[in-house]
Design goal:
The complex is a heterodimer of chains A (366) and B (278). By secondary structure, chain A is of the alpha+beta class. Chain A contains 4 helices and 22 strands. Chain A is rod-shaped, with a radius of gyration of 38 Å. Helix content of chain B is 80%, strand content 0%. The chains are: A alpha+beta (366), B mainly alpha (278). The interface between A and B is medium-sized, with 37 and 32 residues.
Chain lengths: 366, 278
């Protein structure tokens, strides 16, 4: 091992801020002194990484050398996370649907309620279908949502499988991740019967309220008519509840600002609008479900792990070097010790001082 | 035992901890401002004494609420303070000459604890999105980041004071200026790393919960700003040779931004964090 130059620089303890000149009186055996110094530094976790025996003995010891890679590894981790973000920005396909219980979503690109595509992404078609079997919300005693779960049947040419989708419990299928949205509510089905016409059934999705003494609300037009429906739905008219017991809706039907009907309609009852009838025919939950492809998640996890390792190396594995030169000067053996830390030089001074004390004590007993 | 009775004990232990932290603050302040170094040890012992009822109150709260202490200002502040006090005590044990940092740490602690319980004493229920290991990492590392930044702030303040007052009295017994400067740098580095983990874990959790990593929520945006600022601070120190009072002043600015991010933005802007935190 050559140590006259170490990492491109000449081995010279004098050049360091932390420097100590330890003299051993008497001729001394340089080999024995070298061995003593080596043992002391080994016991303190320093490993020899360079040695040169010429007119003087030069030794280079290092500790935590792997720490030098910390910054590179940390930034590589960040780069991974940034790449994942850019990948997402370019290729992510994201669609959102509000599925009513017993409804099946066919997965065609033009069936999304809303969709969001990356800059380079194409239309988002699923190659499977999703059927909402049941939606189950639960609540805390202070009316806050405790959990939202959708029981789904996912079907493709390979068959069908039952899955339970929940908030924070996404489901992955064929490269697409399904997320349970916090959007949900009741869907009311009304059937409009007009003389000499086929009855028309329409679903109206209402938003969930924050408290159980408030109604599920919605205001929308009735397709193929000029009617505007304003609905305030109570799952239980007897006592405030989020759950169905004795359901009814306060319904206002308007046509061009003229109120045609205003009153309470109980489930299965009809509201009369002239010679037409609006039949309150069904109540189901609807559940918001987001479908995402190309989220780059594995790359984010990888980047996170790499960055964490890098950070650990940077701040907990600080590389230190001790350079030693042992030479005979007159009738003394002189041990010159220089040391440096890659980081936190001021804190290394204490450790360096202790190392010098240990070497001094070791040489004295020599 | 009834939950209500346990909560009564929780409040009792909480206020006991606040009072002991006040005494610890007084002790540190007396030691620093009247240059009575002996009182520093008393301050440390009082901080340890305060940590005992504080640990009990957190445990009781956890048991009664059924979830970790992070859902309201009371729980959030209390658990942050616990982490900060533990970090400070470990630091004071490792670097006895910097025990005086307690004069910065302990008043922050008792003010946060008292403020939290006065604002939101009740128990909040866990929202549907609050579960999973990424949430735990997100919350834990926020607290660790704040603890590390407080120590960095304390070291920076002591640096500026020592530089201004010279070697007189109490300041003479503080570590050298370059050691104070290095500790500020070191703990700013820890804070940066913990903050990074907070942001990334939060993004992964958001993706699990809502299907998106980043929504430019005000807290997310300010977290990014704070993270960038700490990154600039560390890079200026590492590559542009920033040291001393210039670096200490920048550290104060960085800390100010972290406080704005954590405690001011949720109060003044509607964010998904304030929905659960306030």
């Amino acid at each position: 091992m050559k140590a006259r130059r170490y990492r491109g620089r000449p081995v010279s303890p004098e050049g360091f801020k932390n420097f100590s000149n330890l003299a051993v009186p008497g001729p001394g055996d340089i080999t024995a002194v070298t061995e003593t110094v080596r043992n002391i530094l080994n016991s303190k976790g320093f490993k020899i990484c360079g040695e040169d025996r010429n007119e003087a003995t030069s030794l280079v010891f290092s500790k935590n050398a792997t720490g030098r890679w910390g910054s590179f590894i940390l930034h590589a981790g960040f780069l991974c996370v940034v790449i994942a973000g850019l990948y997402n920005l370019a290729f992510q396909q994201r669609g959102f649907v509000e599925l009513i219980e017993t409804e099946t979503f066919t997965g065609r690109a033009n069936d999304w309620l809303t969709s969001d595509y990356g800059l380079l992404a194409r239309d988002f078609d699923l190659d499977f279908q999703v059927h909402l079997k049941r939606f189950i919300p639960t609540y805390w005693d202070n009316d806050k949502v405790k959990s939202l779960q959708s029981k789904l049947i996912i079907g493709d040419e390979g068959g069908q499988k039952n899955v339970l989708l929940g908030v924070n419990s996404p489901v992955r299928h064929r490269g697409v991740t399904l997320y349970q949205s916090l959007d949900y509510g009741y869907t009311l089905t009304f059937v409009l019967s007009r003389p000499a016409e086929e009855p028309v059934a329409t679903h109206f999705s209402l938003d969930a309220p924050g408290r159980k003494n408030m109604p599920f609300v919605g205001k929308t037009d009735f397709p193929t008519t000029d009617y505007m429906l304003d609905m305030k739905f109570y799952p239980n008219l007897i006592e405030p509840s989020f759950y169905l017991a004795f359901p009814g809706v306060d319904l206002t039907v308007t046509k061009k600002d003229t109120v045609l009907y205003k009153g309470r309609v109980l489930f299965t009852q009809r509201a009369r609008i002239g010679d037409e009838a609006l039949h309150f025919a069904g109540i189901h939950y609807w559940s918001g479900i987001a479908f995402v492809r190309n989220s780059g998640l594995p790359l984010v996890y990888t980047g996170f792990m790499i960055a964490s390792i890098g950070a650990f190396l940077i701040y907990f594995v600080i590389p230190r070097e001790i350079h030693i030169r042992i030479a005979r000067e007159g009738d003394e053996t002189v041990v010159k010790v220089g040391g440096r830390a890659r980081k936190y030089q001021a804190l290394f001074a204490d450790e360096f001082e202790k190392i010098c004390q240990a070497i001094k004590a070791g040489l004295r007993s020599e | 035992m009834e939950s209500l009775e346990l909560l009564r004990y929780e409040f009792m232990f909480h206020w006991a901890a606040v009072i002991i932290y006040v005494l610890s603050t007084a002790s540190f302040a007396y030691a620093v401002f009247f240059q009575k170094e002996g009182k520093l040890d008393l301050g440390v012992w009082l901080a340890i004494a305060g940590l005992l009822p504080h640990s009990v109150t957190l445990g009781l709260r956890w048991y009664v609420s059924g979830h970790g202490p992070y859902l309201s200002q009371h729980e959030g502040f209390s658990s942050i303070v616990w982490v900060v006090v533990v970090m400070f005590l470990i630091f004071a044990h490792k670097v006895p000459r910097l025990k005086g940092l307690g004069v910065v740490m302990m008043p922050t602690c008792f003010l946060m604890m008292a403020g939290g319980i006065l604002k939101t004493p009740g128990i909040e229920r866990l929202p549907a999105t609050f579960s999973g290991i990424w949430l735990v990492l997100h919350i834990t590392f926020t607290k660790l980041a704040l603890g590390a930044m407080l120590i960095a702030l304390g070291a920076a303040i002591f640096y500026l004071l020592k530089e201004k007052k010279g070697e007189a009295g109490f300041y003479q017994r503080l570590p050298d200026l370059d050691v104070l400067d290095t500790y500020s740098y070191k703990f700013a580095g820890f804070g940066f790393v913990f903050w990074t983990i907070t942001v990334i874990a939060g993004a992964i959790w958001a993706n699990e919960a809502w299907g998106r990593y980043w929504g430019w929520d005000p807290i997310e945006t300010w977290s990014l700003i704070t993270w960038l600022l700490f990154g600039i601070y560390l890079h200026l120190r590492r590559f542009s040779g920033w040291r001393g009072s210039k670096a200490a002043c920048l550290m104060l600015v960085c800390f100010l931004f972290s406080i704005v991010t954590l405690f001011v933005i949720p109060l003044v802007l509607p964010t998904i964090h304030s929905e659960f935190f306030l």
